Amino acid sequence: MPRGRKKTLTPALEDYLTVIYEIQQKQPAARISTIARRVGVSLPSVTNAVRRLADLGYVEYEKYGLIILTSRGKRKAQSLYALQRRIKNFFHYVLGISIDISEKLARHLSHYLTARTRERIKDFYRLIIDFSEDKAKELREFIEESRKLVNAPTLPEEVLEDLKAMEKETEEEEGE
Predict the structure, then answer these.
(1) Contacts of 93 (CB under 8 A, 6+ apart)
(2) Which of 87, 113, 134, 140 could potentially form a cystine with 106 if both were Cys, beta carbons 3.0 to 4.6 Å apart?
């Protein structure tokens, strides 16, 4: 790897890894040109990213050859893909955001979440995605646990003020 380059999986490299995974769901291996078309970048940009992924042990790649995820790469890509799918589905099916925007939000947000945050999202997703009355108690317990985790057993005044402001905004919008 060239001098000065970090030997870490950056958000951009995570995106490439996910795209390679998606391609490999439909065909045995990926090509630089296929990835470039999917991501919308130049061939040299993809080549550079794939070399870095190979240096990190996530893909097997030879110049002008096929790109195949290693077992490590596949595990990481599956994890990223599942997280992005959950976030996308939450925005789309729970909040009613368009699928295009939901996908973009999921792709961007997924890079900045810690392992603990990913677990909390998974737990919340399990409760909310197919919500029914019988899950209300579990949702209440989840919210109480969340507040304990941030040492806020009751809502702070600023949150309550936000709620009042939101109610006022809604009333004004309805009055228009």
Answers:
(1) 129
(2) 87
Report the C-alpha gap between 108 and 12 in whole angstroms: 10
Domain ranges of the chain: 11-75, 132-176
Instruction: Tell me the CATH class for 11-75.
Output: mainly alpha
pLDDT < 70: residue spans in the chain: 1-6
Per DSSP, 30 falls in state B
- Check residue 65 and give its pLDDT: 87
Query: What burial letters (b/e) apply to 3-29, b meaning 16+ CB within 10 Å?
Result: eeeeeebeeebbbbbbbbbebbeeeeb
Q: What is the pLDDT of residue 154?
A: 85
Which residues on neighbouring strands pair with residue 60, listed in sequence order?
Answer: 68
The three-state secondary structure class of 59 is strand
- The pLDDT tens digits for 103-140 are 999 999 999 999 899 899 999 999 999 999 999 999 99
